[in-house]
Amino acid sequence: MGLKRYTIKFLKNVSKRDLPIFPKTIKSRVEEIIKERLTVNPINLGELLRYKFKGHRRLRTGDYRIIYHVNTVKYEVTIVSIKHRKDIYE
Questions:
Q1: Which of 54, 68, 76, 83 sits most deeply, having the most CB atoms within 10 A of its CB?
Q2: What is the DSSP letter of 50?
Q3: Within 41-89, where are the H helices?
């Protein structure tokens, strides 16, 4: 019996505002990481965040950061934000 895969959900602001502005190469790399890594083991991959992002995790991909929340009961990962590292925590 294999591991149960997590489903990925995006907040509206991510799919409408964050993703469309990325260059194609960055966008495809981010989508690949989300699809291949966050669906399998999102808890052990990302670093737990504090302060205003308490309860969320961060995954680094080059100069970009993916902020996400894991629901272990429903096996869901909600992508909260994807931005350049200089803009993500504002």
A1: 68
A2: -
A3: 42-45
Angle 28-30-4 from CA coordinates, rounded to 5°: 110
Q: Output the pTM of the full model.
A: 0.84
Pick the CATH number of 7-84 from 3.30.2310.20, 3.90.1140.10, 2.60.120.340, 3.90.1170.50: 3.30.2310.20
Strands ordered across the beta sheet of 64-71: 7-10, 76-84, 64-71, 57-61, 47-48
Nearest Cα to 47, choosing from 61, 37, 35, 60?
A: 60
Residue in 71, 51, 72, 69 with CA at minimum distance from that of residue 59: 69
pLDDT one-digit tens code per residue, 20-73: 678 888 888 888 888 888 888 888 888 888 888 899 999 988 888 999 999 989
Residue 60 has which token pair?
Answer: 């680094």
